[in-house]
Q: What sequence folds into this?
């Protein structure tokens, strides 16, 4: 029985998603990026907290006290006793406090917090780059799966056409049953490969949906590449969703500039560690300042009652300067400052290690990109030649010069060369995306 083409009775829902839109959705959805933004906001708020320590602090203080027993005293022997105080006692008024001098401890603490906020900002930028890169890699995997599916559908069409031709020849007695069975097995193999490719495509789509936070409600059990021509070959599962992404060529042209960009000396991870080390050094200086005297101004104005010994209210103004200096604390301040300096040295070492890894990964991506470019040229030549071999093999078979096994082998090689070509192009995109993430290319400055 000859195989026929199937026309879809009803068009499946269509998902159109560009790489730029996928990145935007990922930025909006990413919980880790939202966490980084919250960390940055918290660090910036702490900067304001430290800044407030550098300016005068004004408070309103109040107190109330009730006494059950009020002492009495006689102003002169034999004179009647009079109360010394009242049952009700209260005071209320503003208080101003300001640190006149602390050897720069509060100023350095503020600068330390500013450096830490800069570190959190760089960390936010690093997370943003990572989210962009992961989204692109997921997007490229979907593109690869779509290309593999399209190649297998084309191969299934060819296998079906050959089977139909051999079926007619078999019925006419011009082909053996072995040839007929072999051709039918080839059709079944292509269907099996296609279904497996659709399963891989569905998995790749789910990974992309998890990254972007969209599309989870779609049925992707049997996805179809929107670029596949209709009608579909016989035996293909009814499509549940049609997927249209940007062509590989378009995305490659967009990222091509990253191939020539230098490694990013201001990579966010390096900036984050540098600012963190700076913050720890300033924190050490701030702690060390506590070993010197600290002068603090206090001014207080209270409305009090009673104004002993008089039972009346009065405004009482008080101004004063206090000084404090640690005499003995068993090296607590010294050791705390030393600990912060050791942490700064450790952070700088981690920054140097991160720089080494950055340069290593950049060179690795450049080397792989160069090799993949050469492979791509070979793949194009192989795709053309294997396709021509497949056509010539089948023509030779019809003329009696080749066996059905030769035809199947040539068809399989043609499919594999197309899949290999798509995989190579996807790997090129992966390396370009990696280079962009690690380089100083202008696209990385987009916020």
A:
């Amino acid at each position: 029985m000859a195989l026929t083409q199937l026309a879809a009775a009803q068009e499946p829902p269509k998902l159109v998603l560009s790489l730029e839109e996928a990145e935007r959705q990922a930025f909006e959805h990413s919980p880790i990026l939202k966490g980084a933004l919250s960390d940055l906001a918290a660090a910036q708020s702490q900067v304001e907290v430290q800044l407030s320590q550098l300016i005068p602090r004004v408070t309103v203080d109040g107190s109330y006290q009730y006494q059950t027993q009020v002492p009495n005293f006689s102003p002169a022997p034999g004179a009647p006793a009079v109360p010394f105080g009242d049952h009700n006692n209260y005071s209320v008024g503003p208080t101003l406090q300001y640190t006149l001098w602390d050897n720069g401890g509060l100023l350095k603490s503020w600068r330390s917090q500013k450096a830490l906020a800069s570190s959190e900002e760089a960390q936010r930028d690093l997370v943003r780059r990572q989210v962009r890169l992961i989204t692109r890699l997921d997007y490229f995997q979907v593109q690869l799966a779509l290309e593999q599916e399209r190649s297998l559908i084309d191969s299934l069409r060819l296998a079906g056409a050959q089977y139909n031709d051999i079926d007619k020849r078999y019925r006419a007695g011009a082909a053996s049953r072995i040839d007929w069975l072999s051709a039918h097995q080839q059709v079944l193999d292509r269907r099996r490969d296609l279904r497996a490719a659709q399963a891989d495509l569905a998995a790749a789509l789910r990974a992309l949906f998890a990254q972007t936070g969209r599309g989870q409600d779609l049925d992707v059990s049997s996805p179809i590449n929107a670029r596949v021509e209709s009608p579909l070959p016989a035996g293909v599962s009814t499509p549940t969703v049609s997927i249209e992404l940007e062509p590989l060529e378009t995305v490659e042209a967009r990222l091509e500039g990253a191939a020539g960009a230098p490694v990013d000396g201001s990579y966010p991870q390096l900036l984050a560690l540098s600012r963190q080390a700076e913050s720890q050094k300033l924190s050490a200086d701030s702690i060390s300042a506590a070993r010197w005297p600290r002068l603090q101004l206090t001014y207080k104005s209270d409305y009090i009652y009673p104004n002993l010994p008089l039972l009346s209210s009065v405004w009482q103004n008080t101004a004063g300067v206090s000084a404090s200096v640690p005499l003995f604390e068993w090296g607590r301040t010294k050791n705390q400052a030393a600990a912060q300096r050791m942490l700064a040295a450790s952070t700088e070492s981690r920054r140097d290690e991160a720089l080494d890894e950055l340069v290593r990964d950049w060179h690795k991506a450049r080397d792989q990109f160069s090799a993949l470019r050469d492979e791509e040229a070979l793949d194009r030549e192989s795709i053309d030649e294997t396709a021509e071999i497949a056509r010539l093999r089948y023509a030779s078979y019809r003329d009696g010069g080749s066996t059905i096994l030769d035809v199947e082998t040539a068809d399989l090689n043609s499919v594999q060369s197309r899949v290999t070509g798509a995989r190579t192009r996807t790997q090129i995109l992966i390396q370009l995306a990696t280079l962009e993430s690690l380089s100083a290319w202008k696209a990385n400055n987009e916020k």
